[in-house]
Amino acid sequence: MSACAMPQHARPDVDLTARCACGVVSIAVKGPIHAMFMCSCEDCQRASGTGHATVALASPGDVTITGPTRSFARPANSGALLTRWFCPECGTPLYARSSRAPEALMLPVGLFGAKTTWYVPNQLIFARSHRDWDVMPEGLRMHSTYRNEGGH
Ligand SMILES: [Zn+2]
Ligand SMILES: [Zn+2]
Fold first, then answer.
1. Which ligand is nearest to the CA of 129?
2. Angle at 93 between CA 29 and CA 39, to 5 degrees
3. How many domains does the chain have?
4. Both ends of the chain: CA-CA distance in Å?
5. Distance 86 CA to ligand 2 centre (A)
6. pTM of the prediction?
7. 3-class state of residue 72 by DSSP
8. What is the CATH number of the domain that holds 15?
9. How far away, in angstroms, is 125 Cα from ligand 1 center?
10. Residue 94 Cα, ligand 1 centroid: separation in angstroms?
11. How many Å lie between the centroid of ligand 2 and the Cα of residue 100?
12. Average pLDDT along the chain
């Protein structure tokens, strides 16, 4: 399972809609996904309650949010400001954005449920805080902190 075996998945075009858990907020994404990765930084672990976040990067102009949102911003380890948006009623994570890469929205892939067969993450960033119980695919590329671009 090397990344080279699946180049057709590198930048899939998607046409997705999803709702938060309570239904107040809907999100639509239509356009290319620029990168797919997972992040096991401690901030993602705290925000998700799991071992890693599943992230797909999309252009802000390709993402439409309908309904009220709230956000929370905090400095990431890099010094960049990481802002996470969520439903003010039920807390479902909707997207995140880093001042380090403002041209990309980070979408939490699980929000889109079964419509995510296109998602083939090819690396784990912030592997330095990866937990042994969070089992990763064999051969996944791991970066101690950031990869070259697109992370937070
Ligand atoms: Zn909600
Ligand atoms: Zn993270």
1. 2
2. 90
3. 1
4. 26
5. 16
6. 0.87
7. strand
8. 2.170.150.70
9. 28
10. 10
11. 13
12. 90
